[in-house]
Write a structure and sequence with these properties.
By secondary structure, the protein is of the alpha+beta class. The protein has a single domain (about 1-160), classed as Alpha-D-Glucose-1,6-Bisphosphate, Chain A, domain 4. It is about 30% helix and about 40% strand. The protein has four helices and seven strands; from the N terminus they run βααββββαββα. The protein has helices spanning about 15-20, 30, 95-100, 130-160, and strands at about 1-10, 45-50, 60-65, 70-80, 85-90, 100-110, 115-125. The chain has a seven-stranded antiparallel sheet. A hairpin with a 4-residue loop joins β3 and β4. α1 (about 15-20) crosses α4 (about 130-160). The longest helix has about 30 residues, at about 130-160. The protein is globular and about 45 Å long. The relative contact order is 0.26.
């Protein structure tokens, strides 16, 4: 089974500006994704493997989490300034117990004069009994972490 988690935000800044801030600078992931305690760790650092920003389809991103674990994300699509999609190339223990993969998609769309709508969806592909039992609980916490992340992007975009 797949659980889909969604968050969105409207930001009174143009799409290209918001995309560059949220998706075009890999290191900014640590600035914006603070997690949701106790289940969802924040991002401590993020860096592309073997290349500079921006990522391209096929790029790998090493992500260190605030709980001391690491994951690796694989960029599936990077179409500035509209789309950023990735999945898990390497998951931490909790993710491996709960799911077989997680696929993320950020969409950036104009929303009125000089404004943007950012929509972030995660498809969490459950694994086994652990995923079926704990998946919905983890998904609720993850949705809160996603929304906080988008809210942090909005604050930073509006601050200039």
């Amino acid at each position: 089974m797949t659980i889909t988690v969604r968050a969105d935000v409207r930001i009174a800044r143009p799409v290209d500006v918001v995309f560059e801030l949220a998706a075009g600078r890999t290191a900014n992931l640590a600035r914006f994704f603070t997690g949701h305690k106790p289940l969802i760790p924040g991002i401590r650092s993020a860096a592309l493997v073997g290349r500079a920003d921006p990522p391209v389809a096929g790029s790998l991103r090493d992500v260190a989490l605030s709980d001391g674990t690491t994951i690796q994300e694989r960029v599936l699509a990077f179409e500035a300034p509209r789309l950023h999609r990735y999945d898990m190339a390497r998951m931490n223990l909790l993710q491996r117990v709960l799911c077989s993969n997680m696929v993320s998609e950020w969409r950036f769309e104009p929303d009125g004069e000089g404004a943007s709508r950012v929509t972030w969806e995660y498809a969490i592909h459950e694994r086994g009994l652990g995923g079926r039992l704990l998946g919905p609980l983890v998904a609720r916490h993850f949705q809160r972490a996603m929304q906080s992340c988008l809210d942090n992007v909005a604050v930073a975009a509006l601050a200039g």
